[in-house]
Design brief:
Elements: H1 8-22, H2 34-41, H3 45-57, E1 61-64, E2 70-73, H4 74-81, H5 93-105, H6 121-132, E3 140-143, H7 150-163, E4 174-178, H8 186-194, H9 202-205, E5 210-214, H10 221-228, E6 236-240, H11 244-247, H12 250-254, E7 258-261, H13 270-288, E8 291-295, H14 296-304, H15 310-327, E9 335-338, H16 345-348, E10 364-366, H17 377-394, H18 400-422, H19 427-447, H20 453-469, H21 478-494, H22 496-513, H23 519-529, E11 541-548, H24 552-564, E12 569-574, H25 580-592, E13 598-603, E14 622-626, H26 631-642, H27 647-658, E15 662-665, E16 671-678, H28 682-695, E17 703-708, H29 709-722, E18 723-730, E19 741-743, H30 744-748, H31 753-759, H32 766-779, H33 782-789, H34 794-812, H35 818-836, H36 847-853, H37 855-864, H38 866-872, H39 878-890
Parallel strand pairs: 3-6, 3-7, 4-5, 5-6, 8-9, 11-12, 11-13, 13-14, 16-17, 16-18, 18-19
Antiparallel strand pairs: 1-2, 8-10, 14-15
């Protein structure tokens, strides 16, 4: 790569071509010419051509010698189409596109399965592991309803094994035995499987490949038992649509360590279902060699129909629809048009009839172009663009203003895409628009800005698209996670007011739509709000009127807000029989729902004057309470708030004018602290804190606080009121809002050491932080930590845990990550001590549901932990098994 030693213009040329290449599918081809580049960068055409040709000679750009000449960024093209450019000479852009699309279609093994990286990702991972497991793979049982794709997964598993050179590269290496065909002739089935009169059977012939025994439950128990005796050193896949325990022999089941439950179509996301529909329409288009278009109504009907026959019925329905379209005049048209009336009768009957006589969306959707609107690909590309530009900003290649301008431009294009290209509208979206319009009304009123109904429409479509996609485009790993964090932190710092308003909007959306906006969506809000930069006049002070009675506070607030022409006061009416602690809780939640410096409470007499004494500490605001509230006082205070007086001055002048008394409780400065938590007891937490303290190069002024997990819940409020917690570290996450948590296993596996160092940057200089890093690596070895955590023999318990985890991975048919294994070592060592000391976790929040739904896991865990329970003479309760399950599947 030629990134080193470039001048500023060369960097601009490189970045311009790369960014536009990443948008190649929707960009105008003219942007890839020297003329366009020269105009964008304000350089001569000759200079532009010179730079472009230099990058082409270096192998960075691809050049198409047509008229005009085009240049593309090779790596960006390869990443966009997920392929390798083996060919470098093309006569035209059209030829390049055709080549890239054909290359992208050449998918390998599991990539051919729609959802291999989403709804089927776990099942695919199980099959991969079973094929890879040394030395000769593991037997697999595929279970699930008919039509879910078990046979497809079996064949793709063989293709994967062949591609990885795990089996001989023989095109005939996939052997299929359909048990149903021989259900009535068990002796003939035996001969086919095991051979007869010197001729090898399938069991022997498939030893260097993969044998797929389809619907094994149709074989009698005797034959199943015979197969179970010959499962060593081979790759064999079974499938069944029936209950395993009722239809398979116990002996065979015990010999199959990997059980893959293929999900029904109904349980997969809407986006994945849409991808399946488009995939099979495209396959039908290729088969009949005709372009296919589908109406929005027909597509919606297919999406909304519950296919009891799963993917197989979906494929059949698509073929039937195409046949009907062809029979009803489609043979005369260039493109086959599938509309609602061409659907099979059972799907047609399920179409919801509406009486909406407005404009009907009769747009026809080209199947070949639908892939760009499926899932969250567009959002993901948008977020990746944010990260790339942030990286350039960090390297000095962009100013902050340029970064924002480019982001705003791309956000505008994304919003246009949602409105004009995605063009979705339904009752759910319209209902969300109504809620968002009310949210915007409150925000506009509060901050003197104008978020429009059009933006509510765009935001509703964005949220709806995310709900359908079922994934998070802002979730990234490794280096990209660091960049993502840095990008978000930058905008939080540079666009403080915009981020505060975005947080308030996100909070109201969460409260009213029960939808949590991800980081990308919050950044999109910030980009939209940036147009109001300098106009956002969010008040530093919020005010609430609280009175005894049924409507006193509300009446005062309404009159004052209308008189002043701005909503300044919220109100809480307190009937005489209301417990004041209920009102205190309302006020506490009110204070924490806004990012402000000051809160004023205007109260009448009595217990309300000391309401702050009933609230949890750590409010993070200056709280002013003034009594003897009246309409006149509220008008006076409202005027002073509009004049942006300080809270102390407001209270002092208002009290003199109204003969009232007030109290001002100023925000207290909290001491910095690190909190250590253990699921065993506070002594263990103290031991871990000592390890941490011994790793520091010198003593620093930070409090180290240690708590046992359950005890912490009782003291949480007092801790937060006294201390500013830098971060929490330990073996179990206490879920303290807005407080970072670092798992002990993340320190041991070196995943979060840099994060821990960052929290201490105000206390240690760079050299001291590096010394701290080295000390952590030495002190926080797994062996050392376990010796600190448990009273048991660390060597012995680790030996047992290692053996147990190996058995558990085989039983579950999956390999755990290094971080998960370290975490389970810590968790299980603590678990063993709890059992030995007779202090186990005796309950789990979803224990009954867990017992009924996870019997397979309970049985597997009980067997795998038998060495531990036998050696230590203890029993493993269901509640503890449930926590192990949570750790494995939610890690």
């Amino acid at each position: 790569m030629v990134m080193n030693g470039l001048n500023r213009t060369q960097e601009d040329v490189l970045n311009y071509i790369e960014e536009n290449t990443r948008r190649f599918k929707e960009a105008d081809s003219s942007v890839f010419t020297a003329n366009c580049l020269a105009g964008k960068l304000n350089i001569s055409r000759n200079s532009a051509s010179q730079y472009l040709n230099e990058f082409e000679r270096e192998g960075v750009f691809l050049k198409i010698n047509s008229r005009p000449v085009y240049f593309f960024h090779i790596k960006a093209l390869e990443e966009l189409y997920r392929t390798r450019l083996q060919k470098r000479e093309f006569a035209s852009v059209t030829e390049l596109v055709r080549y890239l699309e054909m290359s992208a279609k050449r998918k390998k093994n599991f990539e051919k399965a729609v959802g291999y990286d989403a709804g089927l990702s776990y099942e695919v991972a199980q099959c991969r592991m079973a094929m890879e497991y040394p030395p000769h793979g593991l037997p697999v049982l595929l279970t699930g309803p008919a039509g879910t794709g078990k046979s497809m997964l079996a064949k793709l598993s063989w293709e994967y094994a062949a591609d990885q050179e795990l089996v001989a590269p023989d095109p005939e290496g996939f052997f299929v035995f359909k048990c149903m065909a021989w259900a009535g002739t068990p002796e003939k089935a035996r001969k086919i499987l095991f051979g007869d009169r010197g001729e090898a059977g399938l069991m022997e012939r498939s030893r260097q490949g993969v044998l797929y025994v389809k619907e094994v439950d149709y074989l009698n128990r005797e034959l199943q038992d015979q197969i179970s005796q010959d499962l060593d050193n081979r790759r064999i896949i079974f499938s069944t649509t029936q209950s395993m325990t009722e239809n398979l022999s116990r002996q065979l089941l015990q010999r199959i360590p990997v059980i893959v439950k293929v999900p029904p179509l109904e349980s997969r996301s809407v986006a994945e279902k849409e991808r399946l529909i488009i995939h099979y329409f495209k396959r039908e288009s290729d088969r009949i060699r005709r372009k296919i278009c589908i109406s929005q109504k027909a597509l919606d009907a297919l999406l909304n129909y519950r296919f009891p026959g799963n993917v197989r019925q979906l494929i059949s329905s698509i073929q039937t629809s195409c046949i009907n379209a062809y029979q009803l005049g489609g043979e005369r048209e260039e493109a086959l048009v599938v509309s609602a009336m061409h659907l099979p009768e059972d799907i047609l009957q399920g179409i919801r009839v509406t009486a909406d006589f407005g404009e009907v969306n009769r747009q026809l959707l080209d199947i070949d172009e639908l892939n760009v609107t499926v899932g969250s690909d567009r959002e993901r590309a948008l977020f990746e663009g944010f990260i790339r530009r942030y990286e350039r900003y960090e390297a000095g290649g962009l100013t902050f203003e340029e970064l924002v301008r480019k982001n705003v431009e791309e956000v505008g294009e994304y919003f246009d895409f949602l409105v004009f290209e995605k063009n979705i509208s339904n009752d759910k979206i319209r209902a969300m628009e109504s809620v968002l319009n009310e949210v915007f009304r409150k925000v506009n009123e509060q901050y003197d800005i104008q978020l429009s109904a059009n933006f509510a429409m765009v935001l509703a479509r964005m949220i709806y698209s995310s709900m359908r996609a079922g994934d998070r485009p802002d979730q990234v790993d490794g280096r990209h996670q660091e960049l993502s964090d840095g990008c978000y932190e930058l905008f939080s710092r540079k666009c403080e007011k915009e981020m505060a308003v975005a947080a308030e909007i996100a909070g109201m959306i969460s409260q009213n739509l029960e939808w949590e906006m991800n980081r990308l969506q919050r950044l999109l809000l910030v980009m939209k709000l940036y147009q109001f930069r300098g106009q956002i006049r969010g008040a530093d002070t919020r005010a609430m009127i609280i009175c005894h009675g049924y409507s006193t506070a509300g009446s005062i607030a309404d009159v004052v807000n209308q008189t002043l022409g701005k909503k300044l006061f919220d109100a809480v009416d307190m009937p005489m029989d209301t417990d004041i602690s209920v009102i205190a809780d309302k006020v506490y939640r009110y204070i924490n729902s806004f990012q402000v410096k000051n809160v004023l409470l205007l109260v009448d007499l009595g217990s309300l004057e000391t309401i702050d004494c009933l609230m949890r500490r750590g409010l993070g605001v200056n709280l002013g309470i003034i009594n003897n509230v009246s309409t006149r006082m509220a008008l006076d205070i409202g005027g002073k708030m509009l004049a942006r007086m300080e809270i102390g001055e407001i209270l002092e002048k208002a009290s003199l004018a109204s003969q009232a008394t007030y109290r001002l409780i100023e925000e207290q400065k909290k001491e910095d602290a690190i909190l250590f938590v253990s699921e065993l007891n506070s002594d263990v937490a103290q031991k871990v804190s000592r390890l941490f303290m011994n790793s520091l190069p010198r003593k620093i002024e930070i409090n180290l606080i240690c708590y046992e997990y359950t005890a912490l819940q009782d003291y949480r409020a007092s801790i937060l009121s006294r201390y500013h917690i830098l971060f929490v570290a330990g073996t179990v996450n206490p879920m303290m809002a807005d407080t970072p948590f670092v798992y002990l296993e993340d320190i041991i596996s070196f995943n979060k050491i840099d994060t821990v160092k960052q929290y201490l940057q105000d206390y240690l200089d760079e050299g001291e932080r590096e010394q701290f890093h080295r000390n952590l690596l030495k002190n926080f070895s797994l062996q050392n930590v376990i010796e600190y955590l448990t009273i048991l023999n660390a060597d012995k318990v680790l030996e047992f845990v290692d053996d147990t985890l190996e058995q558990l991975q085989i039983a579950l048919g999956r390999r755990f990550s290094a971080k998960t294994i370290i975490g389970l070592n810590i968790h299980i060592c603590c678990l063993v001590e709890r059992l030995v000391t007779k202090t186990p976790f005796t309950s789990h929040m979803n224990e009954e549901e867990f017992k009924s739904c996870r019997k397979d896991f309970i049985d597997a865990a009980t067997i795998c932990f038998s060495n531990i329970t036998s050696h230590y003479g203890v029993e493993l309760p269901i509640s503890e098994i449930a926590y192990i399950y949570d750790y494995i599947y939610h890690d």
